[in-house]
Amino acid sequence: MGPTLPIMKRRHLIQATAAAAAGAIALSDDAAGAIASSDDASAQAAGRTALGGRRRVHVVLFDGVEELDFAAPLQVLGIAGRFGAPIEITLVAVDGPRTIRASHGTEIKVDGAWAPGTADMILVPGGGTGRDADKPGVAAEIRRGTIPAALRAVRRPGLVMASVCTGALLLGAAGLVRGRPCTTHHGAKDLLAEQGGKVINGPGAGSPGPRVVDDGDLLTSAGITSGLELALWFVERTYGSEMSMNVEMVLEYERRGLVYRSR
After folding, report:
1. Are 164 and 124 in contact (CB under 8 A)?
2. In total, how many domains does the chain have?
3. Domain DJ-1/PfpI: where (predicted)?
4. pLDDT tens-digit profile of 21-50?
């Protein structure tokens, strides 16, 4: 794969490409798919500005959930909604409306009922390392089994399953990553591989892995802050690069790292 463009030039490239209606920047292939920088991926979608349809996103919360894991994508999707993207966000708890106590003590009142049949995407944040089942978080929820069972039961065509950080382990416990390209926090990749996931690493020894792995109806992202990249990528692939750039400008943030798109 050739050198990528400096991040600070990305918006100028996208705007120029869109104005000229230029073709997409080609991505390099490997045996399983293509790895592109988020800069290249944005440029690839530059000509796509028409809004997609309504997307109803359900965010699954549980005791011990990492605050930033769900707050970052919630912020991104909410801002996109203000720009006209028809996104509906609902916070849900699998075992019914209640107050959730997050990893750092934040209490969140969850009023949304578990109604996955009304969702277009279910987003599962992480919480903890996935190894200590005696503390609230992903490992405890895997041992309890309620969330994995609920996720396993709702899989259907057209429903996107997404995760941030160790939330991928809950998808793995539900059997949803087996044999599929995916990622999670670098400290939990071995656990995700044990669940049968095809964990995507960097293109060379010591290279950072992708921030987002897009396998169509399975979207996974790496460590805690990668929820920003996951949500921005979702906005771009659904509503176009101009929409995602507008959100980035409000956040004063520019996407970084790699997006892996499977074939």
Report:
1. yes
2. 1
3. 55-236
4. 323 322 223 333 444 444 444 333 333 334
Is residue 41 within 8 A of residue 13, CB to CB? The reply is: no
- Number of helical H runs and strand E runs in the chain: 9, 12
Q: Which two tokens stand for residue 218?
A: 């399975």
What is the extent of the structural domain holding 122?
51-262
- 146-155 burial string, b = 16+ CB within 10 Å, else e? ebbebbeebb
CA distance 150 to 164: 18
Q: Is residue 17 part of a domain?
A: no
15 vs 205, residue with greater confidence: 205
C-alpha separations of 129 from 137, 145, 191, 221 in Å: 8, 17, 10, 15
Radius of gyration for the chain, computed over Cα atoms and rounded to the nearest angstrom: 18
- pTM (two decimals): 0.83
Give the C-alpha separation, 114 to 47, whole Å: 37
Closest CA to 80 of 259, 254, 233: 233
User: What residues contact 20, with CB distance under 8 A and at least 6 apart?
Assistant: none
| Residue the block writes with tokens 């520019």 | 254
CA dihedral 104, 138, 225, 74 (to 10 degrees): -80
Please say whether the beta carbons of 211 and 229 come within 8 A: yes
Q: CA-to-CA distance for 218 and 158, rounded, in angstroms?
A: 10
Tokens of 74: 């919630």
Q: What is the DSSP pairing of strand 98-101 with strand 87-92?
A: unpaired
CATH number of the domain to which 110 belongs: 3.40.50.880
